[in-house]
Amino acid sequence: MTDCLKSQKISVSANNLGCFRDQFPIFNEISFSLSAGEALFLRGANGSGKTSLLLVLAGILPYSGKFEIKRFGENQQDIPANQLIHFIGHQNAIKPELTLKQNLQFWAQMYNGDQTSISQILEKARLFGLDNFLAGHLSAGQKHRLSLCRLLLSPRPLWLLDEPTSTLDSQGDTWVSDLISSHLANAGIIIAATHRTIELKDQKKTKSLTMGANK
């Protein structure tokens, strides 16, 4: 499955998306389209619906309108849409009683990832040497880095990221920028909610959507 996912090329589009809670709109009339290698940054105040939109795209919240993932290119496989997506939210999904290595082994099994790459991934995340350290003892920034390691464990073309640079220092910001730039360079797609500027190697591949602008 991992090799199949490496070859998946996609485009995504949304048309008049809406999400409601108790009949009150969280957001509505959201439309956009992204081709392979493009990123969309969601902007807006707290409560404007950025996280809810990501949850809709991840298939977690119900919605109105249409969201579509189209596959193209060679070697396309009949892979369920949810297996084309990585969603990294505010909750780090870390098991504190497990070591960093054990957490990544668990995620590798869940995501059908490559367990032989765990040490290399930890090194890239500047967590080298902490393989057997209990995850519950990490700092907030280190926990966030560990959570983001899921992106590298198994290839998936669509990344949905909620505040990917939160709790990180300047080195962490650079690492996230490099992760995103590399994913886009390999024909991936990223939709990220962020209050902070993320500097990419090719800013021409980015779009911006301000949530709540019409409220």
Number of DSSP-assigned strands = 8
Q: What percentage of residues falls in helices of 4 or more residues?
A: 25-40%
CATH fold call: Rossmann fold
CATH architecture assignment:
3-Layer(aba) Sandwich
Oligomeric assembly: single chain
Strand order of the largest sheet: 5-6-7-3-8
Strand percentage: 25-35%
Tell me, what is the CATH class?
Alpha Beta
Radius of gyration: 17 Å
Count the domains. Answer: 1
Low-confidence stretches: none
What's the end-to-end separation, in Å? 43 Å
Main sheet: strands, sense, barrel: 5 strands, parallel
Overall geometric form: globular
Mean pLDDT level: 89
* Element string (H = helix, E = strand): HEEEHEEHHHHEHEE
Tally the helices: what do you get?
Answer: 7
> CATH-wise, what's the superfamily?
P-loop containing nucleotide triphosphate hydrolases
Quickly give the structural class: alpha/beta
Task: Tell me about this structure.
The protein is an alpha/beta fold and 215 residues long. It has a single domain, classed as P-loop containing nucleotide triphosphate hydrolases (Rossmann fold), CATH 3.40.50. 28% of the residues lie in helices and 27% in strands. It has seven helices and eight strands. The strands form two sheets. It has a five-stranded parallel β-sheet, sandwiched between helices. Strands 2-1-4 form a three-stranded antiparallel β-sheet. Strand 1 and strand 2 form a beta hairpin. It is globular and about 45 Å long. The relative contact order is 0.22.
